[in-house]
From TrEMBL:
It catalyses: adenosine(37) in tRNA + dimethylallyl diphosphate = N(6)-dimethylallyladenosine(37) in tRNA + diphosphate. It is an enzyme of class 2 (transferase). GO terms for biological process: tRNA modification. ATP binds at residues 9-16. Its EC number is 2.5.1.75. The gene is miaA. This is tRNA dimethylallyltransferase. Substrate binds at residues 11-16. The record marks 100, 125 as: Interaction with substrate tRNA. Gene3D superfamilies: 1.10.20.140, P-loop containing nucleotide triphosphate hydrolases (3.40.50.300). Catalyzes the transfer of a dimethylallyl group onto the adenine at position 37 in tRNAs that read codons beginning with uridine, leading to the formation of N6-(dimethylallyl)adenosine (i(6)A).
Length: 307
């Protein structure tokens, strides 16, 4: 079984720095697990690591879509699988860094969401996207609740993409999304590193990160997306962009929009941490409060690799 190293955790806890250090140490090549970093031109708001900062280490699934294109978990799984095959074949260590928990789980476990069968169901997903656009997210969620209340109970109305995934899986396979996930088998021998620290520190670092993004030019980046029609696209749903659209319309002040970005990022971090603690095995470390724990991380990875 091929080995895959993953690094997850909320924003601003040191994932990028650690990923570069571990890639140097273990001949790693980095696959971005972030569904927003795929978009060209969305650099600041996605905290994208730019080429000049990559230290010559290969990075993949960054800048591979235009902002008006969709990017699905199926795309991520399919493209990541191909990358893992090629990285492993040349003696490298595939490293998946950042991103959403569901994307990582879909890659690491055989969820019947990747590969050709999922790609062939694009028509089903498009139909549900159209349904949501016409009737709203609540009506979409109600449809899921009618066929799979257990799945609906765990997926918020606001997470339309996951609601659609659950409906699509049921329609395509006849298996309830909630039942499918109880029989998952690992696709890879994965070692998942979770970075976290105490909540006040995480929240303070998130707030500071958002301020730095604003200073770095996030407004211009978001305005360009907005004026191109981004409010109707998947790329425009990302945190750091969607909150600024009301400001561009004159509906809120910049300070209100900025605070909303901070709030949404904090809430997202909390949800992600809760999700990971219940969904996949994670080795947790705090490199903010204890930088010396990096030695333990390296030792644990070496043991896992059999070195």
């Amino acid at each position: 079984m091929k080995k895959v190293l993953a690094i997850i955790g909320p924003t601003a806890v040191g994932k990028t720095e650690l990923s570069l250090e571990l890639a140097r140490k273990f001949n790693g090549e980095i696959i971005s697990g972030d569904s927003m970093q795929v978009y060209r031109g969305l650099d600041i708001g996605t905290a994208k690591i730019m080429p000049s900062k990559r230290e010559g280490i290969p990075h993949y699934l960054i800048d591979i879509r235009n902002v008006d294109q969709r990017y699905s978990v199926a795309d991520f799984v399919s493209e990541s699988q191909s990358l893992i095959e090629s990285i492993t074949a040349r003696g490298g260590l595939p490293m998946v860094v950042g991103g959403t928990g569901f994307y990582l789980k879909a890659l690491l476990y055989n969820m019947n969401l990747g590969g050709d069968s999922f790609d062939q169901s694009q028509q089903i997903r498009n139909r549900w996207h159209h349904f949501a656009d016409e009737k709203g997210g609540q009506a979409l969620w109600n449809r899921l609740n009618a066929v799979d209340p257990d799945a609906a109970a765990k997926i918020p109305v606001s997470n339309q993409r996951r609601v659609i995934r659950a409906l699509e899986v049921y329609e395509r396979t006849g298996t309830l999304f909630s039942k499918q996930q109880t029989t998952l088998k690992p696709r890879y021998d994965a070692f998942v590193i979770g970075l976290n620290t105490d909540r006040p520190t995480v929240y303070a670092r998130i707030n500071h990160r958002v301020d730095l993004m604003i200073q770095a030019g996030l407004l211009a980046e978001a305005r360009q997306l907005f004026e191109a029609g981004g409010s109707q696209w998947q790329s425009g749903k990302g945190i750091g962009y969607r909150e600024l659209f009301p400001y561009f319309k004159g509906e809120v002040s910049l300070s209100q929009a900025t605070e909303k970005i901070k709030q949404d990022t904090r809430h997202y971090a909390k949800r992600q941490l809760t999700w990971f603690r219940h969904q996949i095995p994670v080795h947790w470390y705090d490199i903010i409060q204890d930088p010396g724990v990096k030695k333990a991380i390296i030792s644990d990875i070496s043991t896992w690799l059999g070195k």
